[in-house]
Amino acid sequence: MTDHHAAPRPTLEAVAERAGVSRATASRVVNGGAGVRAPLVERVQQAVAELGYVPNQAARTLVTRRNDAVAVIVAEPESRVFADPFFAQQLLGISRELTAQDSQLVLLLVEGTEDYDRVGRYLGGGHVDGALVFSLHADDPLPAIISRIGLPTVFGGRPGWSGAEGDRNILYVDSDNRGGARDAVRHLASLGRSRIATITGPLDQTASVDRLDGYHDLLPDTDPRLIVEGDFSASGGERAMAELLGRVPDLDAVFVASDLMATGALRVLREHGRRVPDDVAVVGFDDMASVAEAADPPLTTIRQDIEGMGRLMVRLLLRGLERPEDGVPRPLSSVVIPTQLVRRTSA
To answer: Based on the number of CB atoms within 10 Å of its own CB, is 45 exposed (0-12), middle (13-18) or buried (19 or more)?
Structure first.
């Protein structure tokens, strides 16, 4: 007579017994924990293979409190996220690093006020181990929601909301926006340009403020008519450039706070018969190859490692989730990545 009962699933205890280690050691190896000596790791892995042990994901989540999933929250409308190559590059870095760490990416976009309740409920529901948040604007309620939930979080960009200044518990990864802007303006000045304008990003975002501060570091007494606020889009760059030419027709250089806006600015300069760089020199910010190299003429710009920022955000978050063997959390600090000038034919 055939036994129709399936063989019982091998248990973690059976793995530990086969490997000759404690259950705690077997659990650490199976759950990817650190601090187990290599020969013991090998013995446990061999026992797992011999017994055909499969971890029970639900039980594992209870033990480790880990879902192996991370929420990526972009505080921008869908139309902007999918049209701007900056977000594609940052998400690429995040996705590659999460894949390498065997974790899933859960993308949450926040378009209007009604989305915050939905996102807050999801984050509070225990579905993810932590969150990566970027493109925040000054009055965004997300930081308060995340703080209330107590979810481990790393921010993309220097925090600018009320109460964030000086809070060492807030982790972020950013580029040296101010230093990069200084390099851009210094380069334009070195070409002998004297009427240097700037098109800023939205000034409710710290990256834009820092880039404008870098411009002011070198041009503290500049004519305020040489500064126009843009919105990080190509059409915003067109609008701002047209406004600048209307205000200051004899300007001879422009530092544009993003490559995408710079492509719009180049179009307007061409339409107005201004030769680049002969009449007007232009420097952008980002160095996204798909934008800067395809621009007409190819764009001199400030390179920031966008994909690297995404990868670093993941590493910082996952390092904060690790439980050290001695139970004492390792201190983590925010990271600011250097930028560099990339010379092409627009300046």
So the answer is: middle
- Write down the pLDDT at residue 11: 82
State the amino acid at position 164 in one-letter form: A
Provide φ and ψ at 253, rounded to 5°. Answer: -160, 150
Establish whether the linkage from the previous residue to 297 is cis, with ω within 30° of 0. yes
In the beta sheet, which residues pair with residue 134? 74, 156
Q: Tokens 């700037």 map to which residue?
A: 198
Distance CA 30, CA 45 (A): 8
pLDDT tens digits, one per residue of 233-272: 999 999 999 999 999 999 999 999 999 999 999 999 999 9
Beta strand pairing call for 104-109 and 196-200: unpaired
Both structure tokens of 109 = 């976009």
Residue 283 neighbours by CB under 8 Å, 6+ apart: 184, 187, 188, 253, 254, 255, 256, 262, 299, 300, 301, 302, 341, 346, 347
Q: What confidence score (pLDDT) does residue 60 get?
A: 52
Q: Is the pLDDT of residue 328 over 70?
A: no
Residues 6+ apart with CB under 8 A from 174: 156, 157, 158, 206, 207, 309, 334, 335, 336, 337
Residue 282's nearest CA partner among 338, 160, 198 is 198
User: Which tokens hold the place of 295?
Assistant: 């621009």
In three-state secondary structure terms, 165 is coil
pLDDT digits (tens, 9 = 90+) for 40-68: 888 988 988 888 887 665 555 544 467 78
